Amino acid sequence: MKWCQVYNVDPALPAAVMRMESGPHYQCGPLGRKGIYLGPGGIRYDYSGPFNIFNPCENIRVVVMSFRGCITEAAIVKRLKTYNTLWWENNYLHDVMACYRQNKRRMIFARIM
């Protein structure tokens, strides 16, 4: 939530991406068949940048940062295509968007209750 407020991103979106990337338990270790993706965000281990993606908190920060400025669903879809360049495999785009909408409904319902 902290990084979502800092970068003005709907928290339902990074939660959906992380669920699709690392599974329902938000694994923090190596992911994928070859283990080259790390953390809940499924970021490639060779991504250096200024962030320590081995740290789950920094990994989540990178995920949230990658979606800043995405307000409309069209912008989200465009960013998802660049976030996961193999987005067409295993219905990734459809699954993330469905999870995103579900997360939004849950958050709205939680605010009402």
Tell me about this structure.
There is one protein chain. The protein has 113 residues and is mostly helical. It has one domain (2-112). Helix content is 53%, strand content 5%. The chain is built from five helices and three strands; from the N terminus they run ααβββααα. It has helices at 2-7, 12-22, 56-66, 73-83, 92-112; strands at 30-31, 37-38, 43-44. A three-stranded antiparallel sheet has the order 1-2-3, with no helix packed on it. Helix 2 (12-22) packs across helix 5. The radius of gyration is 14 Å and the shape is globular. The two termini are 19 Å apart. 27% of the residues are buried.
How do the strands and helices of this protein lay out in sequence?
Elements: H1 2-7, H2 12-22, E1 30-31, E2 37-38, E3 43-44, H3 56-66, H4 73-83, H5 92-112
Antiparallel strand pairs: 1-2, 2-3
Give a brief description.
This protein has 113 residues and is mainly alpha-helical. It is 53% helix and 5% strand.
Count of extended strands: 3
Question: In what range is the share of β-strand residues?
Answer: 5-15%
Counted by DSSP, the helix tally is: 5
N to C succession of SSEs: HHEEEHHH
Number of domains: 1
Structural class: mainly alpha
**Low-confidence blocks of residues:** none
Principal-axis shape equals globular
Overall pLDDT confidence: 81
Distance between the termini: 19 Å
- Outline the biggest β-sheet: 3 strands, antiparallel
Strand order of the largest sheet: 1-2-3
Q: Report the radius of gyration as a whole number of Å.
A: 14 Å
Residues in helix, %: 40-55%
